[in-house]
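Lab notebook, entry 425. We have the chain sequence and a SMILES string for LF53FM6H, and the next step in the workflow is to get a structural model of the bound complex before anyone spends time on docking refinements. Request logged below.

Task: model protein plus LF53FM6H, output structure tokens.
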Amino acid sequence: MSSSDLAAILPGVIIVSRRSLRKNKFVDFVGEYHLDLIVGYGAVPVIVPRVAGVHTLLHSFEPIHGVLLCEGEDIDPSLYEDEETNLSKEELEEIRRLHASDTAIDKEKDTIELALAKHCLERNIPYLGICRGSQVLNVACGGTLYQDIGKELSKNFPQEKKVVHMDYDNYDGHRHDVKIVEDTPLHQWFEESLQDNMEIRVNSYHHQGVKRLAQWFKPMAYAPDGLVEGFYDPDAYNPEEGKFIMGLQFHPERMRKANSDEFDYPGCTAAYKEFVKAVVAYQKKLNIIKRVPTSLKLDKELEQKRNVIVRSFSLARNLYEGGDNKRQLKESDLKPGAEFLESNIALSVQQENRLKQMGATVRNASSYMERLKMNEEREKLARAVMGKMTIEQLSDLNLFYHMMGQISSDMLEKKQLQNVSAIML
Ligand SMILES: N[C@@H](CCC(=O)NCCCC(=O)O)C(=O)O
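Result returned:
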């Protein structure tokens, strides 16, 4: 097999770059350890540059088989805080002085990464968030962050109880304890290194962290000050089946012995290994689903029907765009398209708008417009009601729909796979 064949079959993992200043100009970068591990376990890292406007082009990176988000600046607090911060002006200034490179917010990166995280959650695409990537995941699901751990979480702790989460004087050498939660993937990965106290020592390069963990996540590890150091979605965890949604506040890819590439623990690479396993399985599922239409053989009668509907849509689109005016159109030419539309109920507002743009509503426009209006009114009503709900109520609702989305996409997948098996038999 040639290397170009291999490239065509390997799954793609999206990673967003970070902007940095080098010799008076901006450059984009991604830490090499992440890239090495992704390639090493059998996927291809696809770097999305954080240049202005890229968030509008994310569909061009499809098919996306996995998303790995890693380090970066602080997330814009307006994306998770709906109240004014309790921090004083002086405290905020001190935070900016202490953590200058983190506090320079990058709104473009925020937009790109939140869009990618939500995309993964909606489509069950494997997601691994390291450090900032875990913070992005929590915010995407309605969780919140400490704007500064030192000023908010550990402010009132006695000195000996404070955990150092950022040590600029011993940047890569610094470690602190974390307690691993039983029966979680982290427990499984680090099992052979764990003593009775269930602790390992992890690195730490952050001054923010999870404040309120989004409801559908389960914590996997805690620092001694109570900070959540790892979490995952237990309903979306099964690497063999392409399911993996996880955030780690520490950097297992970087936990290596001084001046060596040797990892601190054998479990350090497991997050990447299992993530890529899920990515590979996800790609397989996607390919099976994509193959269904091509393996479906339409009989002659169905094929004729399909052609009539396609022609009807094409005539309607032409009419709408003002082209092909010379020809006299008959209503019967447009009827099959309109009937097809009517029989396909429950279109979303966006889908309906799109079809409207295509001129597919030429016939029976009034009933169609009524439906469109009703959907718009429903959306308006839902927005008004939800606007009055508390954060907790919205989180509950979000959790409920996430669960329903998960169940329906599992069922859909099962049925599609059953269809494939039926066709192949
Ligand atoms: N700004 C956030 C996230 C910090 C982060 O991603 N750190 C990773 C390592 C950065 C590096 O070594 O360059 C926070 O401070 O919490």
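Notes for the group: Confidence is low (pLDDT under 50) at residues 357-364. Worth checking against the assay data. The pocket of LF53FM6H is lined by residues 71-74, 102, 131-132, 205-208 (CB under 6 Å).
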